[in-house]
Amino acid sequence: MTVSQVGPPEVQPAGQQAPAGRVHGNRAVLTASAALVLAVLVLSALSLSVGAGEVGAGDVLDYVLGRHGARDSSRLSLVVGDLRLPRTLTALAVGAALGTAGCLLQAVTRNPLAETGLLGVNAGASLGVVVGIAFLGVHSGYGYLLWAFGGAVLASALVLLIANRRGGGSPMRLVLAGSALGATFGGITSVLIVNSAETYDRFRFWVLGSLAGVEGFTKLTSLAPVLAAGFVVALLIARPLSALALGDDLAKGLGHRPGVIRVVVAVAVTLLTAASVALVGPISFLGLLAGFLARAVTGPRLTAQLVLAGLIGAGVLTGSDVLARVVSRPFEAPVSVIIALFGAPVLIGIVRSRRMASMGMTDPAADEGPKGGRAAAVRRPPPRKADGGDSLVVRTGSLSLLVHRRAAVAAFALAAVLVGAVVLSAYAGQSEMGLGRTFSAVFGSGDRFDVLLVQKFRLGRIVAGLAAGAALGLAGCLTQTLARNRLATPELLGVNDGATAAVLLSATLSGTFGAWWAGPLGALAAVLVVTTVSGGLGQRGYRVLVVGLAMSALASAVTQVVLSRRSLNSASSLYVWTSGSLNGRSYSAAVPVLVGLAVLVPLALVVARHLNVLRFDDSTAASLGVAPGRVRLVCMLLAVGLAGLAVGICGPVGFIALASPVIAGRLAGPLRVPVVGSMLVGATLVVLADTVGRVALDGAEIPVGIVSTVLGGPFLLWVLLGRSAATRV
Fold first, then answer.
1. Average pLDDT in the chain
2. Could you give the CA distance from residue 456 to residue 458 in angstroms, rounded to a whole number?
3. Do residues 476 and 682 lie in contact, with contact meaning Cβ atoms separated by under 8 Å?
4. Exposed, middle or buried by CB within 10 Å (0-12, 13-18, 19+), for 208?
5. Which is it for the CA torsion 495, 481, 711, 426, positive or negative?
6. Do 645 and 636 contact (CB within 8 A), yes or no?
7. Which of 236, 429, 551, 702 is the most exposed place for a label (fewest CB within 10 A)?
8. Among candidates 242, 266, 287, which has minimal Cα distance to 107?
9. Tens of pLDDT along 410-436?
């Protein structure tokens, strides 16, 4: 994840007149604020006038003003007083809270892409609701509210505890701790609902986020003090947080305590986001959008950002709620989908505009001097040591091959571990079959039932898991090496979400599920959109990331809508696949990926030599005879094809593409691109995760993607929050 420093606040000496540019900027902010206030008022009036009940704007105005005995009408009291007015006020409060929280989080992490879910709030709230439904039979809106708020607060408290355990709660540690814990909580949530159709049925509508369940002022008044406290803390911390943008050392010199500031900001974000999620469910993307838009208007002035972000959030959520009521009458569309459909193009438009430079979001390559500068020096790997003792030349006639001993030993060791994982997976299961009977069944001898179980069911899904894991590991290796970032995975370009949405749409349109071509086609479409809109594969920095996030939000919204529109049985089975599952996969499912690997792996081995050079800056790579643009294009196409094929087989299995290159790189050494090692690690991890999912619960199966997510969160913490994390990110 790239981190951008927020520009320092400008300080005007006393007794001097403000520059003309500053006056012009203040006028622009005031004009924007006035326009936003007017827009919020208009949208609020529209929200009160639109909806079921056949009550027009005139009747609503009479009720609000108490004219013509309107408040004595039971029909108007029900429609306006109990339904529309509480719903509108809730939309305004929640929108302002999420916008303010997103702006705060972007400022404290110095990352314009930060979103309110980064502190694990959404994942904690979802887990709280599922626990309440599954174990206590909670089914009322107020019960959801209590459990969602409790889970959100617990998640944020754990994130703060982990982030401040060592290192003073730096922005990167806060983000990584929230992401890792959120992933783990999400995996646990999936474990609880994947085998319970009733729990999933209730959860799948709550998780979309909606204001349809708001009736009366009971919920809003119960959490109004929490929201008020969050807004007050946000305003009080704005000035110290602006000083923190100058850097920790300068902030300390001005009398501030950076660690305390970050904790207070996290508390404010938790209060605002937890109350919002408890009221209307998880509304993703709104905090990112509001903070981003506010910064585009105000520049680095944090107090103005907070005010405008609150207004933008309130207006966007209220307007989206109005659209949700009218676009699919007599039903309501999920408000989070409306926000994604509206917000993604707006966000992309800002990224494509000239405001990027004023927002401090220029690409790193553009900031390098003619000789590469300090930034290039940071990105360059350490100079290679003489590796004569680590290499072995193998000659056969006129042909010779340079073999790196450490990498070769690591590959053989990983291959041995993979064989052990395959044997364990073939042996383990719910049936009581010994190791000897398992080996006999593998070769087609022994009991007929044993042969059918092992060869037809277990070996088929093992081969599918091996192919998918190898493809994901190789795709992760290519994207991480290409981006020079341990966090870079195909998800950054919307590959997984695009492939998932394409598979679900193909199943909906054709009536059949499992078309291998849908995954790569959706992944390719997502990448084409991202790269075209962002200006090409050569773009680094925030432009590609912002467009990738927008693309993921759109594809994820499509996925959620497809699941919510299907019957319970169909949605439950599709949800298992969208969690990542090898259930029912056979040899035929693995064939497309195996063919793809046979074609793409040799190409990846050839490109790996150029990737070693591409670790330097582009000018150095070009001077060594490597075309950076061509190498990026080939690598990206390889990664997209591999990840799309894997998603088509087993769904979006998380953390495999992230973990495989990290583990393989540790074993092979820092000077190699671990192409083969990443494939072996990816295949091993998928097979082992599938085995754990089959045997962990008696009589039930946990999808492989859920197992990898639950275990991947702690792994992410271990890898990225360790003592040498700064050298690996």
1. 76
2. 6
3. yes
4. buried
5. positive
6. no
7. 236
8. 242
9. 889 999 999 999 888 888 765 666 667
CB 334 within 8 A of CB 210: yes
Q: Specify burial of residue 174 (Cβ count, 10 A radius: 0-12, 13-18, 19+).
A: buried
* Cβ neighbours of residue 385 closer than 8 Å, sequence gap 6 or more: none
The structure tokens listed for 459 are: 């070996």
What count of Cα atoms within 13 Å lies in the side-chain half-sphere of residue 62? 14
The predicted model scores a pTM of: 0.72
| 379, burial (CB in 10 Å: exposed 0-12, middle 13-18, buried 19+) | middle
CA angle 445, 448, 451 (to 5 degrees): 60
Measure the CA–CA gap between 110 and 91, rounded to whole angstroms: 28
Q: Are 374 and 367 in contact (CB under 8 A)?
A: no
Residue 441 half-sphere exposure, CB side, CA atoms within 13 Å?
22
Buried-state track 497-506, b at ≥16 Cβ within 10 A, e below 16: bbbbbbbbeb
Least Cα distance to 679 among 609, 615, 593 occurs for: 593
Residue with tokens 């049936």: 431
Beta bridge partners of 403: 392
Q: Which two tokens stand for residue 290?
A: 């509001």
Distance CA 688, CA 414 (A): 13
In DSSP terms, 482 is beta-bridged to none
Residue indicated by tokens 């995996």? 187
Q: What tokens appear for 726 in the block?
A: 């700064």
Contact assessment for residue 529 and residue 260, using Cβ atoms and an 8 Å cutoff: no
Q: What is the pLDDT of residues 37-91, one digit of tens each?
A: 999 999 998 888 887 666 767 777 777 777 766 677 777 777 777 788 889 999 9
Contact between 710 and 653 (Cβ < 8 Å): no
Burial code (b: 16+ CB inside 10 Å, e: under 16) for 297-327 equals: bbbbbbebbbbbbbbbbbbbbbbbbbbbbee
Roughly how many angstroms between the first and final C-alpha of the chain, as a whole number?
8
